[in-house]
Write a structure and sequence with these properties.
The protein is an alpha+beta fold. The chain is built from 20 helices and 17 strands. Strands 7, 10, 11, 15, 16 and 17 form a six-stranded mixed β-sheet that branches. Helix 19 links the parallel strand 1 and strand 2. Helix 1 runs parallel beside helix 5. It is globular and about 85 Å long. The termini are far apart.
Length: 559
């Protein structure tokens, strides 16, 4: 390889990278979330409960070209090639050296999550690509201030937001690193056109009552836990590889930024790490949320290694040798030798076994959105999950697929006390039962007003409410298999407390598109003095469903 040019060596490594990721994508079992994103692609939309729509577009294109694993992962393999090429173009061009190529691929392969997103499909895949494109556009904009670079900024900013909401941080930290951008009318115009391109997504959010924003900004907050704070930095070190993470800390501390572009890279890395460290005060932080830092990390380390022989030697020894462990893990994933709890083996047998028992009956799961996603992936059959207050809302609550199965026989794959039967298969077991006529209450709406925002334990109160059924199926409160009861509910953090109430007028049938006015009487239960979120819920065999908005009330002990 000594006689190879830098360009030839780069494309040789790029081809090897593609082949490895293709093999990994084909033979590594699909993950829970990938199956979920595969369903996104089946139901294309301008938005989804959990994420923007770019990952859905990737899985849709993949599914048009392939079936099976590549039907979800093919575009991921392709998009990372674009990410690598764009990242390579961000490097300093003053030195042409095969060492530069080798260091580039060693560092890229050593970043665990960056490497994983070459074959695992998540919204982070397009986020990485558009981060690289945005930095490339910004680099060109700094050099030329041209309209072409400005339009490239427009496309990359829109692509970033359509990929993942961390896009705001990528763009924001670059602007903070160079406030002079705010005086540049071309940059403002680029941002304005990007907002126009994003209008369909904002409209979708508005029409669906901003589910993504409420979920990420409010519902994911679980309060302060010391464990979330303590695990944050070790998790970051792990996903970036301890040896590589140590090298980037060394570069950040030793070298000062030489220009605005380097300054932007410093801001992204330090900004992301510090921002999500702060969010650890309000809840768990997923390690991959900072993965956009991978692009500037690769650029800074490669550039620094070409000036610092000690760093270059460190990359060729310590970081390079760490690739053996990463390679071993990737081989284990391909051979399905990893334990099932790790998420890369054992799922196909389970969902094939469930399908064998259910036969041609629709399958209904309870609480977990991953299970219906995996069942659909492995069996190519539509199914649904019934969410409860003790779980969380998902895209399935927007799809409302369970409406297709109302009053029809189904197989309920869930642990419901007194109903379930245990089914065994080679490698595990699952619980479930057959029902003759499904009835669910998730789409029923309840509106109420509570005058007392501060109440005392033991107080008797009366609440007027309106209950409506927007579906085309009647809700039978005396259903022989899925009877319905109205409860008051108090939520504090993850604690959900339901309380039976007395209806002023009993409800027997809630007809399609019918609204009923009613009242409940209740006594404030003996709870700890505190603030609670109060609402009304309908309870069935599946549990308590989300039927009303919640208001904050204060519960106090009697003076």
């Amino acid at each position: 390889m000594k006689n190879w040019s830098q360009r030839q060596l780069f494309f040789l490594f790029l081809i090897i990278w593609i082949l490895i990721n293709l093999l990994q994508a084909i033979f590594t079992e699909i993950t829970n979330d990938e199956a979920y994103y595969g369903l996104y692609g089946k139901y294309l939309s301008w938005g989804y409960f959990d994420h923007p729509p770019m990952v859905a577009l990737l899985t849709r294109i993949s599914s048009l070209l392939f079936t099976g694993n590549l039907g979800i992962r093919f575009m991921t393999v392709i998009l990372q090639i674009g990410t690598l090429v764009l990242t390579w173009k961000l490097l300093e061009t003053t030195q042409l050296s095969n060492t530069k190529v080798i260091n580039f691929f060693i560092i890229a392969a050593s970043l665990v999550m960056f490497s994983a997103y070459g074959f695992i499909t998540t919204p982070d895949v397009p986020l990485l690509f558009f981060t690289a494109l945005f930095l490339y556009a910004y680099h060109q904009f700094l050099k030329s201030n041209s309209w072409l670079a400005a339009m490239l900024l427009t496309a990359s900013m829109a692509g970033l937001v359509y990929s993942k909401y961390q896009a705001v941080l990528v763009i924001g930290f670059v602007v903070l690193s160079n406030l002079g951008l705010l005086k540049n009318y071309k940059f403002w115009l680029a941002g304005f056109i990007a907002l126009i391109l994003l209008f369909p997504h904002f409209l979708w959010q508005y029409e669906n009552d901003f589910p993504s924003f409420r979920y990420h900004l409010i519902n994911r907050s679980s309060g302060f836990k010391l464990g979330n704070l303590l695990e944050y930095l070790p998790n970051q070190i792990a996903v970036y590889n301890p040896f590589t993470f140590g090298a980037i800390v060394y570069v950040l501390l030793k070298y000062k930024t030489q220009n605005l572009f380097e300054r932007a890279q410093y801001f992204i890395i330090i900004g992301f790490i510090c921002f999500f460290w702060l969010t650890a005060f309000r809840g768990h932080v997923e390690p991959q949320w900072t993965v956009a830092c991978s692009i500037p990390m690769i650029v800074l380390l490669v550039n620094a290694s070409m000036k610092d022989s000690k760093l270059s030697n460190y990359i060729r020894t310590f970081i390079a040798w760490s690739l053996l462990l990463i390679l071993l893990i990737r081989i284990i994933l391909i051979t399905n030798l990893s334990p099932s709890w790790y998420g890369y083996s054992g799922k196909e047998a389970r969902y094939k076994a469930i399908e064998k028992i259910a036969g041609d009956k629709p399958v209904i799961f309870n609480k977990s959105f991953q299970e219906p996603s995996l069942y659909t992936f492995f069996n190519q059959k539509e199914c649904q999950v019934i969410s409860t207050l003790k779980g969380r809302q998902t895209q399935f609550d927007l799809w409302q697929l369970e409406q297709n199965y109302q009053n029809k026989p189904v197989f309920i794959c869930s642990y419901i006390k007194g109903k379930y039967k245990v089914y065994t298969y080679k490698g595990g077991r699952f619980r479930g039962f057959f029902a003759d006529s499904l009835q669910t209450t998730n789409r029923v709406k309840i509106k109420f007003e509570i005058a007392e925002k501060s109440v005392q334990i033991g107080d008797s109160i009366s609440i007027s409410f309106v209950i409506s059924n927007p579906t085309k199926h009647a809700i039978n409160f005396n259903h022989r298999e899925f009877p319905v009861e109205l409860y008051a509910v108090y939520i504090k953090g993850k604690c959900v407390i339901i309380q039976k109430v007395t209806l002023n007028k009993p409800i027997s049938i809630l007809h399609p598109n019918e609204k009923l006015n009613n009242k409940i009487k209740m006594v404030i239960p003996n709870l700890n003095s505190d603030n609670y979120h109060f609402g009304l819920t309908l309870k069935t065999l599946f549990g308590s469903t989300l039927n009303s908005n919640f208001v904050k009330i204060e519960i106090k002990k009697h003076d």
